[in-house]
Amino acid sequence: MQLDEIINKHKADLNATDMVIWKYIVTHRAGVRHISIHELARSCAVSSTTVVRFAQKLGLDGFSELKAILKMEEPSGEVYHDDVLKDLGEFYIKTGKKLMDRNFDTASKLIHEANRVYAYASGYVQSNVVQELKRLFFYDNVLIFEIRGREEFNAVMQNVTKDDLFIFVSFSGESPNVTDFAQQLQLRDVPLISITKLHDNTLASLSTVNLYVSPARFQLYEEGDARPAFQSMMPYFLLLEIWYVKYRVYMHTKEEAVKNEEEAIADT
């Protein structure tokens, strides 16, 4: 699990001083990988004990483990320029492996047990992700209703219950609509699954489950070319496919357990 994901998971446990430490780490991530706990404490105007407690609130043993995670996340320094197809292929393989290793049981349980499932996309590309989500789960008779804008959301909220489920797709997790909608759902204890880029964001911290993806940029043009780098959106769609397949495995396991239990009762 990467540090941004850990922070989102434990954000409710962090106080204002903890957030000062975290903001310093975010701003000076490269430097913090190589400094001592005393240097970090001095930079944040806190004690070394406070830094240790911050790490422990994240479920870590201490600063050493926190720094080890930062070092593991250190960029490889690759420049996607000379052989972009090779780099793109390696990115696909690496992304696929990460997603295959992820446990989707909690998300699958939420979508299976939901009375109604709603989805909201914060932009055009995100809406394409929602369309694919709807298409995949339709095969399993799971109907997902897409909400298009604030008026529709407000109308749905008139009758929403704790048995419903919302799925938000947002790249930054910080757009005003998604954070406002997520806060309203949290106040009503309505479960929320969010799909965002892997970084510390408000939507993830408000979600019941957050599914992270890590898009990558690839430079297709010569140095100095003003055109933006190509950003691969493949991780979002690969996440959906793997989640759906794992959902089917989850459902099969659940159905087999029920069947075995019924057979055991019949034999008694």
Number of helices: 13
Straight-line distance between termini: 46 Å
- Backbone structural class: alpha/beta
Which geometry do the CA atoms define? globular
Please state the CA-atom Rg, rounded to the nearest Å.
Answer: 21 Å
- Provide the domain count: 2
Give the proportion of residues in helices.
55-70%
Q: Kindly report the CATH topology of the largest domain.
A: Rossmann fold
Helix-strand string: HHHHHHHHEHEHEHEHEEEH
How would you write the strand order of the largest sheet?
2-1-3-4-5
Identify the CATH homologous superfamily of the largest domain.
Glucose-6-phosphate isomerase like protein, domain 1
* Mean model confidence by pLDDT: 88
Oligomer designation:
single chain
- Low-pLDDT segments, ≥5 res: 76-80
User: What's the CATH architecture name of the largest domain?
Assistant: 3-Layer(aba) Sandwich
Q: Indicate the CATH class of the largest domain.
A: Alpha Beta
What does this structure look like?
By secondary structure, the chain is an alpha/beta fold. The protein folds into 2 domains: 3-72, Arc Repressor Mutant, subunit A, CATH 1.10.10; 84-256, Rossmann fold. The chain has 13 helices and 7 strands. It has helices at residues 3-10, 16-27, 29-32, 37-44, 48-57, 63-72, 84-100, 105-113, 124-138, 150-157, 176-187, 202-206, 234-267, and strands spanning 117-121, 144-147, 165-169, 192-197, 209-213, 216-218, 230-232. Strands 2-1-3-4-5 form a 5-stranded parallel sheet, sandwiched between helices. It has a two-stranded antiparallel sheet with strand order 6-7. The radius of gyration is 21 Å and the shape is globular. The chain starts with a helix and ends with a helix. The model is unreliable at 76-80 (pLDDT under 50).
